Amino acid sequence: MKKKQIYIESLLKKKTGESAGHRQRVERVAGQVKTFLETGNRISIQKASLSHMVNSLGKRKNEAAKINIRDFVNILSIDPERRICIAESGVTFSKLVRETLKYNLVPKCVPEIKSITLGGTVSGCSVESMSFKHGGFYDSCLEFEIVTGRGDILTCSRGEDTFEMLHASFGTLGIITTIAFELVPAKPYVHLDFHKYDSLAGFQDAMVDHFTGQDIDFMDGIVHSPAQFVLCTGSFVDNAPYTGTSYWTPYYKSTLKRRQDYLRTYDYFFRYDRDGFWVSGKYGMENKLLRLLLGPFVLGFDNMLNLAEILFFLTNRTGKPYVIVDVLIPFTKSRDFYEWYEKEFNYFPLWVVPYRHDPYYKWVNPGFFRGLTDNLFIDFAIYAFKQPRDGRNYYRLLEEKVKELQGVKILISHNFYQEEEFWEIHNKALYDKVKSQIDPHNLFRNLYTKLC
Ligand SMILES: Cc1cc2nc3c(=O)[nH]c(=O)nc-3n(C[C@H](O)[C@H](O)[C@H](O)COP(=O)(O)OP(=O)(O)OC[C@H]3O[C@@H](n4cnc5c(N)ncnc54)[C@H](O)[C@@H]3O)c2cc1C
To answer: Which of 100, 166, 188, 296 is the most buried (most CB within 10 A)?
Structure first.
């Protein structure tokens, strides 16, 4: 049967401007991969924007051979009729949202950090306040163009094993060069309501109501303390009586103080970027004087990442790295998880994002979700928990609890799984099958070896 790969190839057939330049860039990368095949070096990629992998902080200079894809930062086409965008993998969500908004469109999932890239969200994972409708960015993708570990240029589309396994493959199967994905209609402003609850039950009930009713455009939650749950719901609007965020208050705090808010759509998507959610507090930046004096150098997620690299405060050089991780828990087990978290971690704020997970991803071992019927999962995002020196590894505690609850820990930071246990969660059979087809010489390293 002929494969249905239509979007990227038909664009590239036009051989005009952007697409001609793109073809040259991809061929250059394919040629470089072939050269590395001869030397036998393991390779990783070098993007224009910073990596958000916590475990790569402080290690970047020591990594193996690099393939430079810094120039893959172009949006190749936006089709407002079909609501489809084709863009290179190094395009940041900040740039993408600015461009698609010109057509009153936005991606179906926009990670809250400006410099996260399209390729990074497919190879890693993504979650944000539209995830209760659309899942992660991967779920809106139609096609990927990749350079394989054989140095071939390959296009794959939804439903194919290669396409499905590139998700959460963390760069271990090939280099994603181009992505075709869906957009949704947008308006210039977002109106937000902040609903306050003093217990998990009310907070969760409201979340389920909106998930079932699909009556709003955005939903995320922040647990400020065990007695302060805030559900943030939002919808696109054409007009706003006021807009703008206060420089002096991290946005997450506004959700507790205010009852509602209006933001420009671009500002809404990146409302947590300036303070890295609440990570800026670890630098003392909730102090107004420090904000005044050091704000331009410290605030903004990229600044914080750069500083983290200098200070190593997020790395494992201290032996006790901060916990920065997302875990995806089936809704029916989310109360169990939360109660356990409150007892063991008792660390707040905690970001809580409902996530449509339907159908289940193929990179998860098919037996792992046995018996589950949830199509709603909850992403719990723990950002910058300082591990107590009590002899326990809190990353490991999370791994055990999350697995017990048939949840998945996203591999963006420190991972301590034994290999056998890792492949109880991840789909080894399919991973190995795709790996043998597109990276038979293991140029990009194995998922377990690279991440654990
Ligand atoms: C503090 C913090 C907050 C976060 N907040 C959010 C959030 O609000 N929403 C959200 O969705 N996510 C969030 N993330 C997670 C983030 O989306 C993922 O870590 C994502 O993978 C980062 O993408 P990146 O573009 O920075 O890629 P990188 O960090 O550079 O790469 C991530 C992985 O993907 C691989 N990769 C990157 N590009 C390619 C490519 N073109 N081809 C093949 N492999 C590639 C890399 O090798 C690496 O293994 C957060 C992470 C942190 C640390």
So the answer is: 166
- Position 104, amino acid: N
Q: Is 89's C-beta closer than 6 angstroms to any atom of ligand 1?
A: yes
In a domain, 82, yes or no: yes
- CATH number, domain of 130, equals 3.30.465.10
Give the pLDDT confidence score for residue 65 in this predicted structure.
Answer: 84
Q: Could you tell me if residue 35 is inside a domain?
A: yes
Which residue range(s) make up the domain with 45? 7-186+439-451
One-letter identity of residue 408: V
Q: Indicate the helix (H) or strand (E) that contains 397.
A: helix 394-404
**How many structural domains are present in the chain?**
1
Q: Is the CB of 135 under 6 A from ligand 1?
A: no
Answer yes or no: is 325 within a domain. no
Please indicate, yes or no, if residue 201 is contained in any of the structural domains.
no
Ligand 1 centroid–CA 251 distance in Å is 22
Of ligand 1's listed atoms, the one at least distance from the Cα of 128 is 9
Backbone angles phi, psi at 374, to 5 degrees: -60, 130
CA-nearest residue for atom 44, ligand 1, is 171
pLDDT tens string 235-251 = 999 999 999 888 889 99
